[in-house]
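Database export, one record per block. Field names are fixed; values are copied verbatim from the stored entry.
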Amino acid sequence: MKRLDWSDELKTTLGLTHVLERVQTAAQLSRQTLAECKFFTPDEQKERIQYFKSMKRLQVVMTSQESQYSDLFMTLSDLRDISGIVEKLKIGVDPDVKDLFVLKKQVALEQRVFRFTAFLKAAGLRLCDHARVLALLGGTRGTGIDLPIRLSMSDFDDTELAADRQTMAVLMKALADRPDEAAEERIFLQLETVSARVTAGEAKVFRWLAQNLAPFADSLLANQAVLVSLDLMMAKIRLAAEYGCESVTLSSRELYFDQVIHPEEDRNLTRQGRMFTPVSMRVKAGVTVISGANMSGKSVALNTILLNAMLVNMGFFPFAKQAHVPIFARYIWVGDVQGDRTQGLSTFGAEVGLIREAVDAASGSVCLIVLDEPFRGTNPGEGRRLAGGLASYLNELSSFTLIATHYRLSDEKRYRRYQSGDIDIPDVPPYDYEQAVRMLADRVDYRLRDITGVTSIPEKALAIAGWLGLQKEILQAANYEAENTHGDFKTE
């Protein structure tokens, strides 16, 4: 799997951060792993198919064995990152007592998870049996796996080391009895000698344990990865259950969503007493265009499609009634330029740089590219021509490109096209402007309409401006401009 190359700002902007925060894992280590945002790549299609089959099987087991699931969740909450300890074993550095204690707790946890056979089998996961490791770390206390887990260096004493520890205890008691100065000096000399032997003896124990544990280094890390995977799969299934989204078809030819939602936008609208309008859309290789006025939902539709497509390839069920999702090499979004990388550039210059990178990526692999009003940073005439040229070029590639734009592109019949935000304008506006804006927002139909092949698209910007009270003289001048301007604005 490959790590997503989005900035933290972009993850937040597009709603990915919100989704990740909603995922409730048992272990902090699992949450850290999820934050890496790794996704399946095109050469991992078989693995992606198997992953979702396992998710469906695990979903059934979780539903039918709720009490066992709760016990498993509590068990996994003790999962820790042992990669640093394992690295010590690999390079021959002796572990200390704390390392051994953490390792013993982890292996005991593994042994307890073995009890949840149905969950492991459904998830298609297998743990290595580390009973031998637990025995090595058990010492004289045995190999019990139930809490509390204990570990002391005295557990590993041989006869000689045990005798030295006993001698130290006797000498310490003698010191506590307040001997005279000469006796005290003799006791300290004896303690120094015995303490050195104990330290040397413990060093031998550490060395012996390191040598005997080293062969298990790789399998210890493998088991940690298995436990993290199980935790993440169960967390994703719980999140899907909250939204009732449990189905996805792993397509290779089209990207299709039926009634897909954006979780963060849905939450925000719910808090306002409003409802999110689900997006239904079909995208194939080449270019798909969304047109519509500002505030008509174009950007939200783009973000919803991109977010859910990417989530599927991170191993999530999409927030949709139905979905067909291909596998992509990269997920590219170009909209309002952001981040330090654009400092010192004009808006237009920064945008051109981002678009150039997107085109380069799309030329070498199958990517999902989302362009939110490309070339908005220049004059309308040249912006329309640039957007048209970009769409024409990308339409010949195997990548899937979604473009939201105000511009009327030349030869639009070549593209699949949608329109957002049809507005039912009331006959009479209220006197209060703020009330008028709210009324208009409530009358926007945010559903996407498939207008592929349609040549006449209703334009309502002038009518809306008039309804909101823009001066009649301005509207008359705008109509005059429309009647007397042909083609693009003239440019030098």
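Remark 1: The domain at 245-458 is CATH 3.40.50.300 (Rossmann fold).
Remark 2: The chain has two domains: 2-152+214-236, 245-458.
End of record.
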